[in-house]
Amino acid sequence: MVVRPMPPSGRFPTTWTYTASLRLSVSPTIRTARYYSVHAARSQHRPRFIGLKSPRFPSTSRLFTRTFASDSPKAPSEGAKAAQKKESETESAASAASSPDEPHSQRPHDSSRPTTASTESDFDWEEKPNFRIEKFTELPYTNFGVNQHMIIDREFKEVLRQLLWRFRAPIRYAFAYGSGVFPQSKGGTATEAEIKAIHPKAPVAVQKAQDGSPKMIDFIFGVSYTQHWHSLNLMQHRDHYSMLGSLGSAAVSYVQDKWGAGVYFNPYVTVDGILIKYGVVNIDTLCRDLSEWDTLYLAGRLHKPVKILRDDPRVRLANQINLLSALRTALLLLPPTFTEQELYATIAGISYLGDPRMAFPTENPKKVANIVNHNMLNFRRLYAPLVESLPNVDYNDPACSQPDWVNNTDSVLKLQQDMDPIKRGNMVRRLPKAFRSKLYFEYQKKFQIPQLEFNKMMEENKDEDAISFKRQQGGGFEQRIAQDEPEALRKIIRGVIKKTINWPSTSQSIKSALTAGFSRSIRYLREKMAKYREATKPEKDEKTS
Question: What b/e readout covers 146-161, taking b as 16+ CB neighbours within 10 angstroms?
């Protein structure tokens, strides 16, 4: 028989039992659903005829008590151990990112590179990335990608990390981003009522980090199996979902994977007294966008500083490719000399070029400038090691001679790049695959290259890639692209970015109305319009004065 603990108060007895004389039938649907339960692995076989006396079933086994995770302490599961290990690796990477030598850690000839490395090119990891890796020790070299880890307040970081443990469904990779983590404006003086309107029970660390301007905190969760993840999460957090959740995990995962950019958002969710929004994405979808730029939806978010809370070696490898691609794209858009502020603004603006929200009064028109101006140190930590690793761009500023120049944000550093067509042609050749194909197509039309000749040229490039053991070089076609008029080149690259982003972002915005629900969608739209009015108000006041 089964004994289920019930609340001590109420009209019912504290336990209820059933025996062979009163058996409850269980439908196949419910029986199947139990396999997805968090407690399915803990359930034990129960004898069909409990009342029979047998040596196998002694009288003491007449009552079987089912316990839950909150009833008694249990050893950590394999999933919990894996999550703890990833958080430990994340902490190690963050510590390495704060090292004074970090700006030089991503150079291709780093002395920390293992002696057992392949004899192929130092950059072979980028041309032929191994996305089958499972351990951080399998990354190309020691401290690889630690520039991705931003340094934030320790107490605030622990609060964010504890939020992940409120989800029983396994989270393989996670980061927090947006103005709720990295402020994009000067702090305000919010009242206690205003803070509680956003965060009902915000810890002091959250209030301190948001500096008097309470905002919803955004997360992205990378998961291995979307339907399984939503099945577990629906049972634990059904209130996080809209009416779509009533159709089950199969419908939710179908909408996530087949519509938009492959992300499912649950906004305006309160966890531990903190208002959050979290998006769920399949880890394969995330890595593909980071390495190939097929939608630039998540890759664009990771162009800007984010706080990685649970790292994954595959994603770190793909994101390093993503960051290098963003840097190369920005260099193609910039003149020979420029400031680091112009560089970071160009990179941060990539993901907003085709965003439909920027075409309507639903987004702050000064958003890119606010992101860069209030996060110069984080942008420098993110991209300075990559600038140091590339052969065709350098810092050209005496301030860089100081030992602590990375942490010194008093001056805006100057940079210069080599405009040699061969080196710039190499940058074109090393752009992400899906993005590069679209750029080639645009220049095929501009240069009026016959289709057969163009196809032959592309096949030759593929054959060269297959047999070459050296870093792939840009050919005549890529050099011709790089030598195009600067304004024409910028126009075509921006056009390709817009085409890449526009449809995934538009369809994702439409999908959000379904996944978030009507009331949450209206609330989100109102808040975005309020930010737009607030940002444009000073300009209107200046014009009327």
Answer: bbbbbbbeeebbebbb
Q: Are 303 and 323 in contact (CB under 8 A)?
A: yes
CA distance 104 to 101: 6
Q: Are the C-beta atoms of residues 412 and 400 closer than 8 Å to each other?
A: no
Q: Whose structure tokens read 């920027």?
A: 358
List the structure tokens of 368. 């890119």
Q: Rounded to whole angstroms, what are the CA distances from 226 to 158, 237, 324, 333, 378?
A: 26, 15, 29, 37, 32
- Both tokens of 371, joined, read 């992101």
End-to-end CA distance of the chain: 81
CA 434 to chain centre: 19
Beta strands in 149-253 (DSSP E): 173-177, 217-223
Q: Are 145 and 92 in contact (CB under 8 A)?
A: no
Element (H, E) at 175: strand 173-177
State the 10-residue block means of pLDDT for the chain, 545 residues long. Answer: 50 43 44 43 41 40 36 60 79 72 58 40 71 92 94 95 96 95 80 88 91 91 97 96 94 93 94 96 97 95 96 96 97 96 96 76 78 94 94 91 85 93 94 94 93 84 55 82 95 95 88 82 77 64 44
- How many angstroms separate the CA atoms of 493 and 484, rounded? 11
Count other C-beta atoms under 10 Å from residue 475's C-beta: 16
pTM attached to this predicted model = 0.80
Strand, helix or coil for residue 339: strand
Instruction: Check: CB of residue 490 under 8 Å from CB of residue 242.
Output: no
Q: How far apart are CA 512 and CA 534, in angstroms?
A: 24
Amino acid (1-letter code) at residue 268: Y
CA distance 138 to 93: 15
Q: Return d(Cα 164, Cα 372) in angstroms, integer.
A: 28
What single letter denotes the amino acid at residue 142?
A: T
DSSP string, 9-21: SSSS-S-----TT
Q: How far apart are CA 425 and CA 407, in angstroms?
A: 33
